[in-house]
Amino acid sequence: MTPAARPALAIDVIVGSELWKDSGQLQATVRRAVTRAAAMLSTRGAELAIVLTDDSTIRALNRDWRGVDKATNVLAFPTKNAAGGHLGDIVLAFETIAREAHSERKPFAHHLAHLAVHGFLHLVGYDHELPKDALEMERTERKILRQLAIPDPYRPVRAARRVGVKRADKHAAKRPQKSA
Q1: What number of other Cβ atoms are within 10 A of residue 158's Cβ?
Q2: Is 99 contained in some domain?
Q3: What pTM did the predictor assign?
C-alpha cells in the first residue's frame, strides 16, 4: 500500500473526568493538534487514544508507571511494538493544565493543544532527556503549533515577566546555558 493510500490517523478521545464535561470544543482541539502533528511527521495508518482526566488519576498513573508521586500535565504511553498500528495513549490532566495556562497567561485551548502535540511526539519517539533532544523536540513542537496559529509556548510572556510570574517550563533546565 502506498503512503497516500494508507488511512489517516485514527484518534479515540476518552473523557475520564467530569471536569471535561461539555468538552466538545476541547476534544476538537486535541484532535486537530494531534492530526496536524501526524500530518507533519507523515504518521498515517496509525491509531492512538487520548484520555482527558483529572489530577488524581494522572497522579496515580505517574506514581505507578514513573515512580513520581505527583500530578503532571501530560503523560504519554507509547506502544512497545506499534506494528499493529496503535501508537499508544496520551493522558491529559484538567486541573494541572488549567493552573499552568492561568499562571502562564495563555488560553487553556492553546496550552492543551501544545501538550497534546508534546504527548504525540513522545509516542513517535521524541524525548527531552538530553539537551540536544529537548531542543529538537521543542523545535518540532514550535513548527507544528505555528501551523495551528498557536504562539510559541517556550517564549516568555511579556506581561507575565512584568509582574514577576515565572514560566512553568519543565524543559528550561535542560536547555544549554549561554555563557556571558
Answers
A1: 8
A2: yes
A3: 0.82
